[in-house]
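User: I'm writing a tutorial on reading structure tokens. Could you give me a worked example: one chain, its sequence, then its tokens, then a sentence or two explaining what the tokens reveal?
Assistant: Sure. Here is the example chain.
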Amino acid sequence: MVIWTVANQKGGVGKTTTTVTLGGLLAERGHRVLLVDTDPHASLTYYFGIDAEELEVSVFDIFMRGKQITREEILQSLCPTQAEGLDILPASMSLATLDRAMGNKGGMGLLLKKALQLIAADYDYVLIDCPPVMGVLMVNALAACQRVLIPVQTEFLALKGLERMIATMALMRGSKQALAYTIIATMYDKRTRASLEAFKALKETYQDQVWSSVVPIDTKFRDASLAQTPPHMFTSNARGVFAYNTLLTYLLQLAPEA
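And here are its predicted structure tokens:
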């Protein structure tokens, strides 16, 4: 089971869109895919029409149950989506209380990793959508994955957020092997100087860590979210879907991470 965490310490850069679109495209290619929502705002959960306030079980229960969680309990908390082969482990608003309740306890950073190991035989890929705040949730998401996908809006304020994200990953790993990551330029508008210069700066600063292409601004992403379906199912020929399909091919060609 390969786990990718989609993270950035700046909001509004396309994390949920990246998670949904890549997850949907992986499922379309025949993989068994699980999306995990670790954001208290539950954008990924609401994307699929699931009311986070009405859930009886969610990813919150994994943290509260801790090491006592069972495979059966995890499977009971999963929800199917409209896409065959694509499931979601939804979030609830209660996640906002985790840092206060658990932040000072030892051994809290590996709970999600250990829980996902219990269902490793059930899925080929797991994509974790992160909150834009460093805390117990992001620590768990980063500790669980083999690769971090970092969407970065092509404007200079977003580049500052990227610097914080890279620093966070370095602090987490310390002297251990560096965490693999791929930077994805999103919301690219070739008509604007800001996008052109921001993408140029990304490539100059981070070089091989930056995917060589971009995800353009595409209103079809918003339309797909209103339809509560992965973008490729809403409109397969949208330029944004084409970009993510190209990105997915690139990611799958990287060294095996399982």
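What the tokens reveal: The beta strands are 2-6, 33-37, 79-80, 86-89, 125-129, 147-153, 180-188, 210-216. The two ends are 6 Å apart (CA to CA).
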